[in-house]
Amino acid sequence: MPAANPSDRALVARQAAHTRWARCDDPKAATAPARKGFLARFEREVDPDQTLDPAERARRAEHAMRAYMTRMAMRSSQSRRGSGSR
């Protein structure tokens, strides 16, 4: 029977995630496709026409990803403070 409310669904999902990772032999290999896809997003963002040298594209993508993560951290901090301004 599925969980009846959002709180119970979150607990069921958390339990399933912990079970999955408890059975995983190589977590790094299991998440490699997701990490590759995430970085590819930033490579497309910084070089949509693929005209840059691969090394330069990777450098810019790394900075774009860091900017994204910093932006998320700032929003999280603002949310915890309750300011809500972006």
What is Rg?
A: 18 Å
- The helix tally amounts to 3
Question: In oligomeric terms, what are we looking at?
Answer: single chain
User: Which spans of ≥5 residues are poorly predicted at pLDDT below 50?
Assistant: none
Q: What is the N-to-C succession of helices and strands? A: HHH
Q: How many domain units?
A: 1
Shape: flat
Question: What does the model show?
Answer:
This protein has 86 residues and is an all-alpha fold. It has three helices and no strands.
What is the element layout, followed by pairings?
Elements: H1 6-22, H2 27-46, H3 54-81
Helix pairs in contact: 2-3
Q: What are the key terms here?
A:
76% helix; single chain; mainly alpha
Quick structural gist:
With 86 residues, this protein is mostly helical. The protein has helices at residues 6-22, 27-46, 54-81.
